[in-house]
Amino acid sequence: MPLKKSLLEEKPFILIVDDVLKNLQVLGNILRAEGYFFTPATSGKQALKIIEKRLPDLILLDVMMPETDGYEVCRILKDNPATKDIPIIFLTAKTDTEDIVKGFAMGGVDYITKPFSPAELLARINTHLKILKISNERKELLHVLCHDLANAFSPIISALNIIHDYATYKVLRKDMETAALNGMRIIELVRTIRALEDNKIELKLESVELKKAVKSSELMLERKFAEKQIELVQHIDDNLTVSAEFTSLVNSVINNLLTNAVKFSYPNSKIIIEAKQSGDNVTVSIQDFGVGMSEQLQRDIFDMKKTTSRIGTGGETGTGFGMPLVKKFVKAYGGAIEIASKREKDCPEDHGTEVRVILKSGG
Q1: CA 11/CA 91 separation, integer angstroms
Q2: What is the CATH number of domain 205-363?
Q3: Is the pTM of this model over 0.70?
Q4: How many Å is the maximal CA-CA distance in the chain?
């Protein structure tokens, strides 16, 4: 049975494990006052059963419990790839140095002895949750950038496949130049994101020619479109501009949206991208006529904590991390993103996905 991740977006879900009811009540009151969501477990076995159904964001774990003690619970969780990254804070009356050392050796991120200060406990919880958030965001970033690099260098793969034919020299040169330019853009994108994470710079917005941005993405994804014989239909005025940052708009936003559209489209179909200006806003729509997505997936797709990766119509795999980054960039531009979709099995005559990105006009 697949593990269900925490459904909470604003406050993390904390699991408290202690066989003493009074201790659970005290901890519950502390967490409740801080606004955290939590669930108590009175034994190690009960805790493991809860985790089978819902992954906590952090665990407060007592050591001295009958049958399955805290150390054994920790060992079981750390041996499981699905639960090994959950921060575990041991909260126990065992104060000997060897017990503390054992707690860290088993994989605990912290060790707090009873009696404890509520303020100190909350401070340590907040610290480890922040560390977890940063770690998850950086994992997401690495997954997405690897995905984007693959798009950027796909023309090189195409070129290598035809390099034996001298007559195709001009095509080869074009592909190599495109790949080199895209590669430099991705490197610049990585530098930009790292600087943003370190609060060293703010994203510099500019007036971007939308048709030029889409063309840059199309050149990178030519091979993907050709492999499935998908036609890209464009309805974008030559003079239409949006307020964005060119490199991230092309390599992260448009690339990811078009890649997903290709991935879930059927061979020999089409994808329509169009843009319309209304007042100070420009709405960019990318419409495919593929398998569509469920309502649950539409709700989860921008949440990096949720499992949203799916196999494409051509067997394509992915990480499921692209859309959360797309939303981050769109928000950084001062825009918004929406999804409307119908699954093929629910709507045989009218299915597919439309993603709408609303951006400020660059004019």
Answers
A1: 21
A2: 3.30.565.10
A3: no
A4: 81
How many secondary structure helices (H) and strands (E) does the chain include?
13, 12
Distance of alpha carbon 8 from its chain centroid, rounded? 15
Fold topology of 13-133: Rossmann fold (3.40.50)
As a whole number of Å, the CA-based R_g of the chain is 25
Cα-based distances in Å from 160 to 154, 171, 226 = 10, 11, 16
Ranges under pLDDT 70 in the chain: 1-10, 134-202, 304-308, 318-321
Contact 144, 260 (CB under 8 A): no
In this structure, are residues 119 and 34 in contact, taking their beta carbons and an 8 Å threshold? no
Among residues 174, 183, 150, 136, the alpha carbon closest in space to that of 5 is found at 136
Residue 178 token pair: 């495109």
The torsion of the CA quartet 113, 117, 118, 124, rounded to 10 degrees, works out to: -60
201 neighbors 188 (Cβ within 8 angstroms):
no
Report how far residue 65's alpha carbon sits from residue 49's, in angstroms, rounded to the nearest whole number. Answer: 16
Strand partners, 274: 235, 285
What was the pLDDT predicted at 126? 87
User: Distance between alpha carbon 356 and the CA centroid of its chain, in Å?
Assistant: 19
